[in-house]
Specification:
The protein is of the alpha/beta class and about 600 residues long. It has 19 helices and 25 strands. Strand 16, helix 9 and strand 17 form a beta-alpha-beta unit. The radius of gyration is 25 Å and the shape is globular. The structure holds glutamic acid.
């Protein structure tokens, strides 16, 4: 996965490309490069971060160009493997996000035809194919080149002496930023917010030609007018706003984004709105498919829907979904993906559609591939999430699931009213967790010295244990495991001891007594025990070595306050260990390969 950008207008392309690339580093950052086209083509690339490239890159004159920040899939990060990739004549340059499956075969063919390759990437075949097919029109050459290619791509091609950028996409996102006498291209909207809020999302298979005054898009061979969308995100939303890391900023944005998401949907919890998202057939049972943090939100959704609606819910990992044969066309399916571009989630979605399921997407990105594939899309209102570790997107996914559950609830009206009231109070409750930040920091100091940590929970806090462990491992590199509390005795007990702390997530629900028993068992094994418990829970205070208190909420909402506390715990632990929190090693924000 990587980020690609393009600019064409009256201004110098160099600084605009570098600025846009900076905003895409969350998609990958092992190397980067730019190509600027004037009368000739000038390329500068290296295995460095964008900041460094901006410092050392020469002036590169020209008002059209392309850029790339890479997360290598084929060929190690190196100056020669960095994009843009050029053809033999040195006149055509290409940036690519995706994977070309048949690149070895194409490489052999093109080599036999006289092309010489310099990199180990799959991408380089594209620039040579364009060269091969070029007969006066860059657009036609790109189209012919892509006809040979099997794989996923978002590409931008540029040619010396030709004032146009040619764009195309298949299974990787690409958006055109529209402005006056200049146009932009990027993998994702945050890259464009400094320049424009008018965007056109390219669709699967589109090929476009972008000049400074014109955007031409061809879809299935026919010219179409790309629908322009107005992006409501502000440029500050994609900046750090005084916080040391995007992750901390995004954790702190949670009261606001919860409010924004609820504001969008909570008044819609009326019978008519219910049927907009859920059909009567769905009430027989539901399937939720997701990956990573979204999968944990989906698991929490299972408990929420089970309790509030009283329907059986099956939750599957999107990456495993391909291996199940028995999918009922009658099943209502929800696919959760923050970016709307997660390859595994999209693949699952396509399969669900093929068998005739009605698919609802829950996503944060308007116009994303998921939103276009789904029968219906429910947007979370998290704003751009830049930090690789998902935080605010998780809590707003939960908000949508609460709303969904409430809007088709089978519990009595008094319970619905009290849950609705509880939801409205959540921004304030989350703020209280954030206000307790200094206390949480103290526990992080301790955890930062550990190498193995277990997180345990029961019922609706089991997914919270999984999410707490995921947050800790991905940003602090401490080995962490999330477990259903009752499962520890089926194996992991063997690992407990003085150097293996356990974080126990305790809510005042039907799992409470069993959690107390588990805590006692763990203490007996000599593991230090940190409990996450409601304020005023004196019993847990007695039993645990230390307690992080969270405000009291209806237990069904406990995943929200508990997860926010665990996000802070992971953040400060990683900070203490001096980790690159926003860009953890080997990870990228939206996972566009299977
Ligand atoms: N496959 C290309 C490379 O390795 C692009 C990387 C990507 O988009 O993830 O250079």
């Amino acid at each position: 996965m990587c980020g690609i950008v393009g600019y064409i207008g009256d201004k110098s392309a160099r600084s605009i490309l570098l600025n846009c690339l900076r905003r895409l580093e969350y998609r990958g950052y092992d190397s980067c490069g730019i190509a600027v086209a004037g009368g000739s083509l000038e390329v500068y690339k290296d295995a460095v971060r964008v900041e460094e490239l901006a410092r050392v890159a020469p002036q590169l004159d020209g008002t059209a160009g392309i850029g790339h920040t890479r997360w290598a899939t084929h060929g190690e990060p190196s100056p020669v493997n960095a994009h843009p990739h050029i053809d033999c004549s040195g006149k055509i340059a290409v940036v690519h996000n995706g994977v070309i499956n048949n690149y070895q075969k194409l490489n052999r063919q093109l080599t036999a035809e006289g092309h010489s390759f310099v990199s180990e990437t799959d991408t380089e075949v594209i620039s040579h194919l364009i060269e091969k097919y070029y007969g006066g029109s860059l657009e036609r050459a790109v189209e012919a080149a892509l006809g040979e290619v099997d794989g996923s791509y978002a590409i931008i091609a540029v040619m010396a002496g030709d004032p146009e950028l040619v764009v195309a996409r298949k299974d990787s996102p690409l958006v055109i930023g529209v402005s006056d006498r200049e146009n932009f291209i990027a993998s994702d909207v945050p890259a464009l917010l400094d320049y424009t809020n008018r965007v056109i999302y390219l669709e699967e298979g589109d090929i476009g030609v972008v000049t400074k005054d014109n955007i031409k898009i061809r879809r299935c061979g026919k010219e179409v007018v790309g629908q322009e969308h107005k992006v409501l995100w502000r440029v500050e939303d994609a900046q750090k706003g005084g916080y040391e890391h995007f992750m901390l900023k995004e954790i702190h944005e949670q009261p606001k984004v919860i409010r924004d998401t609820l504001g969008e949907y909570i008044s819609a919890a009326e019978p008519e709105a219910r049927l907009a998202m859920v059909t009567e057939a769905d009430l027989e049972g539901m399937l939720i498919v997701a990956c990573g943090t979204s999968y944990h939100a989906a698991l929490a959704g299972k408990y929420i829907l089970d309790e509030v609606v009283g329907i059986p819910v099956v939750v599957e990992l999107a990456g495993e979904f391909a291996y199940f044969n028995q999918i009922s066309a009658k099943t209502g399916a929800i696919v959760i993906t923050q970016s709307g571009e997660t390859a595994d989630a999209l693949k699952a979605m396509k399969r669900l559609k093929e068998v005739g399921c009605r698919v609802v997407a829950i996503t944060n990105v308007v116009g994303s591939t998921a939103s276009r594939l789904a029968d219906q899309t429910v947007y979370t209102r998290a704003g751009p999430e830049i930090s690789v570790a998902a935080t605010k997107s998780f809590t707003v996914q939960l908000m949508v699931l609460y709303w969904l559950a409430l809007s088709c609830s089978s519990v009595d009206i008094r319970r619905v009213d009290s849950l609705t009231m509880g939801l409205r109070q959540l921004p304030g409750k989350v703020q209280q967790v954030l206000d307790n930040e200094d206390k949480i920091k103290e526990y992080a100091d301790y955890l930062s010295k550990c190498e193995d940590v277990f997180f345990i929970g029961r019922g609706i806090n089991f997914p919270v244990a999984l999410e707490g462990a995921l947050k800790l491992k991905e940003i602090s590199y401490i080995h962490a495991e999330g477990y259903a509390a009752g499962e520890l005795k089926h194996g992991p007990f063997a690992l407990l001891g003085a150097n293996t702390p356990v974080v126990a997530i305790v809510a005042q629900d039907s799992a409470y007594e069993a959690m107390l028993t588990n805590i006692k068992e763990i203490k007996a094994k000599g593991s230090p025990l940190i409990a996450l418990a409601d304020e005023g829970d004196e019993v847990v205070k007695e039993l645990a070595d230390s307690v992080i208190t969270v405000p009291r909420v209806d237990p069904i909402f406990s995943p929200v306050v508990n997860t926010v506390a665990l996000q802070l715990l992971a953040y400060y632990t990683a900070k203490q260990r001096d980790c690159p929190i926003d860009f953890p090693r080997n990870l990228a924000k939206s996972v566009t390969v299977e």
